[in-house]
Task: structure prediction
Amino acid sequence: MSAPNMETLVSLCKRRGLIFPSSEIYGGFASTWDYGPLGSELKRNVKDAWWRSVVWQRSDIEGIEGAILMAPRIWEVSGHLASFTDPLIECKSCNQRFRPDMVEDLVCPNCGANEFTDPRQFNMMFKTFVGPIEDEAAVAYLRPETCQTIFVNFENVLNTARPVPKLPFGIAQIGKAFRNEIVTGNFTFRTREFEQFEVEYFCRPEHAPRLYEEWIAERLKWYTDLGIQPDRLRVRPHEEKELAHYAVACSDIEYRFPEPLGWRELEGIANRTDFDLRRHSEASGHPLDYFDEPTGQHLAPYVIEPSGGVDRAILVFLLDAYHEEQVRKKKRVVLRLHPALAPIKAAVFPLKRNKPELVEMAQGVAGNLQQHMRAIYDDTGAIGRLYRRMDEVGTPYCITVDFQSLEDRTVTVRDRDTMEQNRVHADELLALLRDRIPY
Ligand code: GAP
Result:
């Protein structure tokens, strides 16, 4: 089965509290989205899975969490003020601006007129003012990529992390980035406010080509380990003309999104050379180099950068997990999310809500699980209906307390994917779920 169309997913996300249009009661706001009760759980789980794999499970990467507002000079030095631009043309009749590739046969998509200004470069950074006076001296930018926070903290991390980092080593960060994109859309695929997860992995220049390949394989594996179907992923090396101003090599991990999007970037892995550290060293006067004790050599490390979008990854996890199937002649919608990512890990139901003994035991079972994982108690429908609701949001296990439970304290555990049910003693439930739900 191919990924569902985007409208189907948008509707499921809205209906089930995963993702809502932002500012909806005011008619929404320009391609911005809010994560609801289940979406915010999913987002935490995606970020935790990434953090575990790149920080906790390795001893060569440290994490940081930097500020969104940074010294404006950083964006001059990084090249973003000069180069982070898109060319725009303006319709002389309605004054709307477009990227030249959005305009066919020189006809304005807004008003149909056919006179445009010459293309002008438009910087995609969001500007703001710091302090009470809105003049040029107070201009600051919302960071358009998180990695600059890492480069400017290189020295701090090197001086404070213990044991002292030795090349190759990395610094990881998850955080918000902002881009005043001209073309947004396709749900959360391209928005103006989004989150990134980035590693800057510093190394000796001669090791950069090998580590670049290793990181591509490592990041691809992260997605497939978390359940993304391998045939919907591919690696596409950039052609020279596509490379960003700081990179000598870059490959995108692409996902096959539903048409008309098709194959699009999910994450990029770049060899940024020593561009950023060198530029910041020169401009700040702080030598951001690495002292190699055994050889007594100071060297400018190269950096390999796996850079992904949290929101785009979530979109891919949702699209990939979405399945429709026929069960007893009825449509079943199921999100086959990896259990580590599922917003709710277990839902506990009493077989009958008008039997206080069942209700009490089911609430007790849910309460115990809640000390360890996101688990819920629900008695707002017939069991079959509750199962379907949990299938739709990807809950891997549903637990039912029935009359036998009152006699021997066993409960049924229903598996989301196979729909099989097994009886388990209530006291063994937590161990069983912990075993089946990694992390
Ligand atoms: N530091 C390098 C960098 O920022 P990028 O390819 O521009 O590279 C990295 O961005 C990732 O961030 C992309 O692969 C994508 O997942 C995500 N991303 C970029 N722009 C985005 C946008 N406007 N909306 C949502 N995600 C975006």
The two ends are 29 Å apart (CA to CA).
